[in-house]
Amino acid sequence: MRKFICLLPLIIVLSGGCIRHNILKQGPYLGVIRIDSAEPAMDLPFNMIFALSPDGQKVMQVSNAGEVIMINEMAVSGDTVFMKFPVFTSEIIAIIRHDSLIGKYYPKGKEAGSWYAFYAIPGVTDRFPWANKPASANLSGRWKITENAGTPDSSIMVGEFVQDSNRITGTILNSAGDYRYLEGKVSGNKFMISAIDGAHTLILTADVSPLGKLENGRFMGSPRWKSIWTAERNESIKLPKMDEIVKVKPGARPFNFDLPDINGDKVSLEDPKFKDKVIVVMAIGTWCPNCLDETIFYRDVYTNYREKGLEIVSLCFEEKTLEISKPRMERFIGQTGAGYTFLYAGPRGHESLQSVLYNLDGHMAYPTTLFIDRKGVIRKVETGFSGPGTGQHYTEFCDETLKFLDTLLEEKH
Question: Which domains does the chain possess?
Answer without folding.
Answer: 3-122 (2.40.128), 141-233 (2.40.128.120), 247-410 (3.40.30.10)
